[in-house]
Amino acid sequence: MTDTIARSDTTIRKSVFLKADKATVWAHLTDAKKLGDWFHPADKDMVEGAPFRLTSQNDGERMCWGMVEKMEPTDYMRWAFTVGPLNGIMTTVEWRLEEAPGGTRLTLTHSGLPEDAEGYSLVFNMDKGWHGFLGNLHNLAV
User: Fold this and answer.
1) Residue 84 DSSP class
2) What long-range pairs does 38-42 form, CB within 8 A, spacing at least 24?
3) Among residues 41, 70, 69, which one has the least CA distance to residue 57?
4) Which class for 41: exposed (0-12), middle (13-18), buried (19 or more C-beta within 10 A)?
5) What's phi and psi for 13, nearest 5 deg?
6) Pairwise CA distance, residues 139 & 116, whole Å
């Protein structure tokens, strides 16, 4: 008999439909100034192979950081991503852009998050955060 450990899938998946073409949505994901309009201000534009740092709009403190691992302009981007409460554990954020009638479907997949009960509040808060940020983007990218 084999013991199995129950694991949960704590991957965050969200999709929004935006009334903007893929190039406009892509610009909101990669341009430092546009990132600050809906997410967090960036220290520079997102570039494949380059580290990034996003700061708080309130006090300029570091909020999120990582590395842009892969870019396929206007279709796909993958970040190695962390925030302070993850204590240096890198997670993965993937962005997929697809044409949709009248705009773009943007899908976020955030994986590598804690799977235990102790990490649940962090996953809950990150889910809530992404929901709010994508709502901001929904209102901007029209």
Assistant:
1) G
2) 38/133, 38/136, 38/137, 38/139, 38/140, 38/141, 39/133, 39/136, 39/137, 40/64
3) 41
4) middle
5) -130, 130
6) 34
- Residue by residue, DSSP assigns 14-62 as EEEEESS-HHHHHHHHH-HHHHHHHS--BSS---TT-EEEEE-TTT--E
Structure tokens at 36: 């600050």
* Contact between residue 141 and residue 23 where contact means Cβ atoms under 8 Å apart: no
The H or E element that residue 75 is part of is none
In the chain, the largest separation of any two C-alpha atoms, in whole Å, equals 57
- Taking the whole predicted model, whether its pTM rises above 0.70 is answered as yes
List the one residue out of 14, 64, 54, 50 whose CA is nearest residue 34: 54
What does the alpha-carbon distance between residue 35 and residue 31 come to, in Å, rounded to a whole number? 6
Dihedrals φ, ψ of 47, to 5°?
A: -135, 135
**pLDDT tens-digit readout, 30-88:** 999 999 999 999 999 999 999 999 998 888 888 899 999 999 999 999 999 999 888 88
